[in-house]
Write the structure tokens for this entry.
Amino acid sequence: MHIQDGYLSTSVCLATGAVSLGAVGYSLHRMKDLLGERTVPLTGMMGSLIFAGQMVNFPIGLPVSGHLMGGVLAAAILGPWAGCVAVTLVLVAQWALFSDGGLLALGANVLHMAVLGSIGGYAVMTTVRKLLGGRFRGAVAGSVVAAWLAVLAASAMFCLEFRLSYAVSDFDFGNIFTLMVTLHALIGVGEAIITGFVVSVIYQQRPDLIDMAQPVDSTVASSASRFAAAGLVCALAVAAFAAPFASTLPDGLDSVAEQFRIAASAESTSGLFTNYDQIPIAGWQKLSVSVAGIGGSLAVFAAAVLIGRAIPMNAPVIATEATGE
Amino acid sequence: MSDFWDRYGRSVSICHRLPPVLKLALAVSVIVTGVAIPVRYWPAYGVLGCLVFAGHSIAGIPLGYLIKRLLIFLPFVSSMAISLPLSQGLDRGWDLMLQIMFRGCLAFLVSLWLVNVMPFEQLLVTLRKLKVPAVVVAILAFMYRYVFVVWDELDKMRTARKARSFSGGSLWFRWRTLSQMIGMLLIRSLNRAERIHGAMCSRGWDGEVRWLDDQD
């Protein structure tokens, strides 16, 4: 899931790094508004939890298994700003302890998982919650939808960055996009289900945690900017599905790519095949993306309904174990 | 498990004794060079590769250890890189795939070297020296301190689950149970964070991070 060094060109890494630095800097600035002097213990503990929670492997019936990513979950408990910082620091620690994810690519990873995941995910989550109105159902459905859209938006963003990193003729953009989006529509359903379950458990035990992070009565000004952020995430997700149909998009990106491109892959600029007709697997492209889009949306909708039903609101509260420090 | 990646972090060698900022700068510059130079200049890659292996052998990190970690890393980098030739019907794109894999492995080995010659607490002090905001370093330190506690707690929950012969069931049921485990872990962790916060407050915590200037 993490981007390693070597996938993206240096200039793209620097550009994403700059965007992430700005977003994380602003998050640091805003973080204390919500948490006050509890910032360090709460954010740090959330980071440890995401770190540990990723060790829990979810079976998917195949030899491979999935795990939690946690951007939306962190935002659901801590709010967008502290959530973004927590996920960023998890990524830093994963690099520093496990060599997981590249050092140069850290900016891109932070952009995808912390900025899009927590800040974008929070915007989607609160918007859905407001639309649905209900406290429990709204919170669960919001987190399910946000988790799925955040994963899709991240995959679309990665494709864009990858596209800007290499020469036009080195690969077929449409096909890469298809592969990535189809794969991530599935990964996103897993993330959505896990996030939905975890949020529903927390809402039963400690509804105050979620209601504090997502105030139901927010002001108009903040809801406008939130709406804009939610729109951005949705637009990226829609772009993920629409891109293979819009054949002008890769061509439009060519000029941008030419400007960003460094000499890294200059050895193969003799554009031989640039239209889709010559590629044998072009036929399944649109079909597969449509199936991924429709199937994914249906699965996420079903998950939102089922998770809301699976655990009734008046479930007995399980006493949490009180251990001394 | 906890020393799987930084097993040699506390051993002694010339590499371990280098100033921490220099280690970080060395690693960053090798990674940047590896990603930035065009593949046409392949001798430069050979030189970089030799440099990385020399660094590992000076630091006393055995080859078998490197190969084992590389084997874990390779599926990740190759599954992404294989999509390049796959996107063009397998007749082109192999050179770009090899390029990405080689660069990825090079950067991974450099990161692994850094992890093994620079323990996490040394990284924290270095970040502090590089003027990273105090609150970031404090959260990282807190996270590093408590991640092992949370891991232990998770292990206990897993043991309890196994002792009650948790197995089978439908996929949906298993996902629900595992998610509830994460949810319970989260609530326990946050309760713990609140208790720690109370303990910090009683020792005069006011949200401001203070560091000793002369720590090294």
